[in-house]
From TrEMBL:
Entry keyword Transferase: no
Keywords: Heme, Iron, Metal-binding, Monooxygenase, Oxidoreductase
PROSITE patterns in UniProt: CYTOCHROME_P450
The protein, known as: Cytochrome P450
Originating organism: Streptomonospora arabica
Length: 402
């Protein structure tokens, strides 16, 4: 794996997407080791054909942990399929607790908590002259919210958040042996802690997401098997990835792009009624999940390209959302455009079940910041660099002054 080339691609994939859209058919991209699906129509079609394009390997690792790290991971408790990389009946089984647990009613019930925590975090920001909004806001609020919904002890939330980032580093970054082992050991500790929660909720159910997952994946009063416990832990880890990392990424990117475009930020400060469309436009403009892999389960055709059985695709939401065939002036952020058909939260059977929860947090942050810190500006000395990742695209830090 040429990580230097992959990093360069991931930090700014949009020129590559534009070239791919201009080419006839699909384009094979060596950095991704996959056929890039870049047009809006082709991406929607691929996502609407799960029987032809399997989700197995949706998050295929770019880095393979060495034997020492694999031995450390074996001391953990996760062992089972997850909703992101499953198909058919297995996918429906794993998705059911996500859909029920993140229902409109449950998200509505959490809105008071979201508003209260957002206000408290902004209180802390307002007391200072500036801050890194990635560290002080974007990585904190979604962690606290998903921890609240899951029923985690607040003291466990920082470790849970850190574990999510370590898991992606281990799978997608070129760590040395020591770094791999340290990450694997911490992930294993987190899995064992999550197993404690799973067994506790099985014995004493509560009104929280952990209980919902346990009851869906391991129904009945009999003692949990190790396989059942591991399956619950894996699904809860997947929930943390989807419920925290991607919302954090979109929050940070949203603030970056709005603050970079002063007229857009000031329009929001003057008219909070624009906030819902601003959230949608930011999800379109720079999607936190740029795409997922799919594998052709049989010979087929997509976008005019004949694909053999086993062909690997990278189905790019980020590319589709900048397709000029779908969006006028797609490379321009415009919070008045109301892009209701964007793919920032996916499409089809794998569409994001937590989209409503993400929108609630993003809206709360914009309401609070535009009201309390309308003079916020990116530090003129800040150097903005995007993380080299396709699954939680975000600035590494965002230094802002007010």
């Amino acid at each position: 794996m040429d990580f230097a080339a992959l990093d360069a691609f991931q930090r700014d994939p949009y020129p590559h997407y534009a070239r791919a859209r201009r080419e006839p058919g699909l384009t094979f991209v060596p950095e991704l080791d996959a056929w890039l699906v870049a047009r809006f129509a082709d991406v929607r079609e691929a996502l609407a054909r799960p029987d032809d394009f399997s989700s197995a390997g949706a998050l295929r690792p770019d880095a393979v942990p060495g034997p020492e790290a694999r031995a450390a991971l074996a001391e953990g408790a996760g062992a089972g399929g997850v909703v992101l990389s499953s198909d058919g009946p297995a996918h429906r089984r794993y998705r059911a607790p996500h859909t029920r647990g993140l229902s409109a009613a449950r998200v509505d019930a959490a809105e008071e908590f979201i508003r209260e925590r957002t206000a408290r975090l902004v209180d802390g920001l307002a007391a200072d002259g500036g801050a890194d909004l990635v560290e002080r806001l974007a990585r904190r609020l979604p962690g606290e919210v998903i921890g609240h919904l899951m029923g985690l002890d607040p003291g466990d939330v920082p470790a849970v958040v850190r574990g999510g980032y370590l898991a992606t580093d281990l799978a997608f970054r070129p760590l040395d042996t020591g770094g791999q082992v340290a990450a694997a050991e911490e992930i294993a500790r987190l899995q064992r802690r999550m197993e404690d929660y799973v067994r506790s909720r099985h014995a004493e159910p509560r009104d929280d997401l952990i209980t919902a997952f346990v009851q869906a994946l391991a129904p009945g009063a009999q003692e949990l098997t190790r396989e059942q416990s591991g399956e619950c832990v894996s699904s809860l880890q997947n929930l943390l990835l989807a419920g925290h990392l991607t919302t954090s990424a979109l929050m940070a990117s949203m603030l970056l792009h709005l603050l970079r475009r002063r007229e857009q930020w000031e329009a929001l400060c003057e008219d909070p009624g624009l906030i819902p469309d601003a959230v949608e436009e930011c999800a379109r403009f720079d999607s936190p999940i740029q795409g997922f892999r799919r594998r052709a389960v049989r010979e087929t055709v997509l976008g005019g390209t004949a694909l053999p059985e086993g062909a690997v695709l990278f189905v790019s939401f980020g590319a589709a959302n900048r397709d000029p065939a779908q969006f006028a002036r797609p490379d321009r952020l415009d919070i008045t455009r109301s892009p209701q058909r964007h793919l920032g939260f996916g499409h089809g059977v794998h569409a994001c079940p937590g989209a409503r929860l993400a929108r609630a947090q993003l809206s709360a942050v914009l309401h609070e910041l535009t009201r309390r810190l309308p003079g916020a500006r990116i530090d003129p000395h800040a150097r903005i660099s995007m993380l080299p990742t396709m699954i939680h695209r975000s600035p590494e830090r965002l230094d802002v002054r007010w």
